[in-house]
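This is your field. Please look over both lines of this record.
***
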Amino acid sequence: MKKVGIVGGIGPVSTLDYYSGIINGCRAKANDDNYPEIVIDSINMTEMLSYVSNEDWDSLVNMLLNAIKNLANAGANFAAIASNTPHIVFDKVQKKSALPLISIVEATSAYVQERGCKSVVVLGTRFTMSNGLYSDALTHLSSKTAQTIANTALNFSFNHYKVSIFETTLFGKDLTPSLSSISW
């Protein structure tokens, strides 16, 4: 089994979600009592967010590349960044990365497409929502969906909470109107 690397600490809860999700997924797939090897490099979330706030993309890229280098030095075979916001610079990081990277945006887009979702609502930090990460990645969906995502980005600029993706047709009910009326 390959050793997984996680760039974590850039939401601690997200890091825990990745960690437990990888363990549970690997154990379910292998159907045995073994656990995967996982290495975590925890970076300073406050420092990372200051780079994002100041649009200091080069410093953000360097911070992520250093974390990935640490994961490679610890024997990781591939890595994931356990937060949506740093994916703003994912392409730049991937080009220089010491390891193959898994993109949360690409994986989410593939999941949405595989599930045949007709529309989705994306909730995220101001940084995540204002940079078009998901609206650009989900262009394969209808123009109505792309507009819903764009409107969601404008309406949901709440502070740094966990990003979730919902099918808006849960239980056959379109949740878009009720979600857009929430006061955060």
User: Anything to note?
Assistant: The chain has two domains: 4-102, 106-180.
